[in-house]
């Protein structure tokens, strides 16, 4: 054990991400088997893969998490709710739903609150929990604080920084995603009560990245670099 954490407790912080658009069914199956063997909190999969992931993970203690309206969040609320309901019915116990960014940036707060309330009630009503993805690179601090307030009032389980696919066009014409920055994670943690978890995702690739996000207040980590992180932890004395 190092830094007060064991390998198993590190693994339980992680949602193992299986979301790249080129991922095959075989890749997804191998990723689920890896996550189950390592004891991660969940695997985060595309909606169509939920039923297959459930079969692989049954009895493992690793949950199935499905993304919703991923990665851009632009589906109608009724479609988002239906997609979330189907994912839970297929075996997901966690849903990571992308908020409608245009509504957030337009400060259409009643619409944003109605969306989150609808999806959260749909998910909770089926015995699952909801994480709301902000895609924080596109937002100002005021948007983040208001979103945290709405999510807290709706009683969601987690707020989440990023999809990992929210590439912002920079001044030089290139695209990049900042994701789980210290400022973002600390702001979200400070803007939510303890009852709402913070999931840091986007750019977390090393053990030091994970430990930093945890120190900033993250309760859950989204990463596709799970194997490398836990192998690094083992080399550094975590047991």
Descriptive overview:
- The structure is a single chain.
- The chain is built from ten helices and ten strands.
- With 239 residues, the chain is of the alpha/beta class.
- The protein has one domain (7-235): TIM Barrel (Alpha-Beta Barrel), CATH 3.20.20.
- The strands form two sheets. The protein has an eight-stranded parallel β-barrel, surrounded by six helices. A two-stranded antiparallel sheet has the order 7-8.
- Strand 3 (63-68), helix 4 and strand 4 form a beta-alpha-beta unit.
- The longest helix has 17 residues, at 109-125.
- The chain starts with 6 loop residues before the first helix and ends with a helix.
- The model has no long low-confidence stretch (mean pLDDT 96).
Number of domains: 1
Structural class designation: alpha/beta
Question: Would you count the extended β strands for me?
Answer: 10
Cα Rg: 17 Å
Instruction: Tell me the CATH topology.
Output: TIM Barrel
Provide the low-confidence segments as ranges: none
Strand order of the largest sheet: 1-2-3-4-5-6-9-10
Strand content: 15-25%
CATH-level-4 superfamily name: Aldolase class I
Order of helices and strands: HEHEHEHEHHEHEEEHEHEH
Distance between the termini: 5 Å
- What's the story with the biggest beta sheet? 8 strands, parallel, barrel
Tell me, rounded to a whole number, the average pLDDT.
Answer: 96
- The share of residues in helices is 40-55%
CATH class membership: Alpha Beta
Tell me which CATH architecture applies here. Answer: Alpha-Beta Barrel
* Shape label: globular
């Amino acid at each position: 054990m190092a830094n007060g954490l064991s390998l198993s407790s590190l693994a339980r912080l992680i949602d193992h991400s299986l979301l790249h658009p080129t991922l095959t069914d075989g890749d997804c199956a191998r990723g689920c088997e890896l996550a189950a063997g390592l004891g991660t909190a969940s695997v985060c999969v595309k909606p169509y893969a939920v039923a297959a992931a459930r079969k692989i993970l049954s009895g493992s203690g690793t949950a199935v998490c499905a993304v919703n309206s991923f990665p851009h969040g632009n589906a109608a609320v009724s479609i988002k709710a239906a997609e979330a309901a189907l994912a839970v019915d297929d075996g997901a116990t966690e849903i990571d739903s992308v908020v409608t960014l245009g509504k957030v940036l337009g400060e259409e707060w009643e619409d944003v609150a109605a969306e989150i309330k609808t999806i959260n009630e749909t998910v909770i009503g089926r015995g699952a929990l909801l994480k709301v993805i902000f895609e924080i690179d596109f937002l100002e601090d005021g948007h983040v604080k208001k979103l945290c307030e709405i999510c807290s009032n709706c009683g969601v389980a987690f707020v989440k920084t990023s999809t990992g696919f929210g590439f912002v066009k920079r001044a030089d014409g290139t695209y990049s995603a900042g994701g789980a920055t210290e400022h973002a994670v600390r702001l979200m943690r400070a803007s939510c009560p303890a009852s709402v978890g913070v999931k840091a995702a986007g750019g977390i690739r090393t053990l030091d990245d994970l430990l930093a996000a945890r120190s900033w207040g993250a309760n859950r980590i989204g990463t596709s670099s799970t194997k490398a992180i836990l192998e690094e932890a083992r080399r550094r004395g975590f047991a």
